[in-house]
Amino acid sequence: MESIDIDETDLRLLDALQTDAALSNLALAAQVHVSPPTCLRRVKRLWEAGLIERQVAILNADRLAPVLGHGLSAVVEISLDRQGAEMLDAFEQRISVDEAVQQCYRVSPGPDFVLIVHVADMPAYQALAQRLFTSDANVRNVKAFFSVKRAKFEPKMAISSARRA
């Protein structure tokens, strides 16, 4: 993998894009204090270097729950009985294709995997657990933490407005 030299301006660009990847080039350039052509050139270089993988939309799960049926979010820790590379790869591949699994992290130490899952309700979670965990003889332990509030990805305007009030 090629290394890339990044400077403070690149870091400011990456930070701004992580906050709002929908910014126009003009708005991004103004926020980072560079000219629009410089901004465009640098962002293109960051993409080509693989520092930016993709742009995604962070959806409002609470507002979408009635429409999509994703009313329950959970962080799930999974420990496998056997942790050989083949077994880890097989589990990761199997769970990654399930639509309810939004994110999958292979972690250490502690559990082998941490998953972020979204399902309609508790019966849907139980079906997911049966489908992905209980039926897998290599799954040793499952620990689920059910979300009551998401704080990190709240819109910044709402937070700023609340502070002024």
Q: Give the mean pLDDT.
A: 87
Q: Please state the structural category.
A: alpha+beta
Please report the distance between the alpha carbons of the first and last residues.
49 Å
Amount of helix? 40-55%
Q: Tell how many strands the DSSP assignment holds.
A: 4
What kind of sheet is the major sheet? 4 strands, antiparallel
Strand content: 15-25%
The parts where pLDDT drops under 50 for at least 5 residues are 157-165
Break the fold down into its secondary structure elements and pairings.
Elements: H1 8-19, H2 25-32, H3 36-48, H4 61-68, E1 72-80, H5 85-96, E2 101-106, E3 113-119, H6 122-134, E4 139-146, H7 156-164
Antiparallel strand pairs: 1-3, 1-4, 2-3
Description:
With 165 residues, this protein is α+β, with helices and mostly antiparallel strands. Helices cover 45% and strands 18% of the residues. It contains seven helices and four strands. It has helices at 8-19, 25-32, 36-48, 61-68, 85-96, 122-134, 156-164, and strands at residues 72-80, 101-106, 113-119, 139-146. Strands 2-3-1-4 form a four-stranded antiparallel beta sheet, with helices on one face. Strand 2 (101-106) and strand 3 form a beta hairpin. Helix 1 crosses helix 2 and helix 2 crosses helix 3. The N and C termini lie far apart (49 Å). Mean pLDDT is 87; it is low at 157-165.
List keywords for this structure.
165 residues; 7 helices; alpha+beta; 4-stranded antiparallel sheet; 18% strand
Can I get a quick summary?
This protein is of the alpha+beta class.
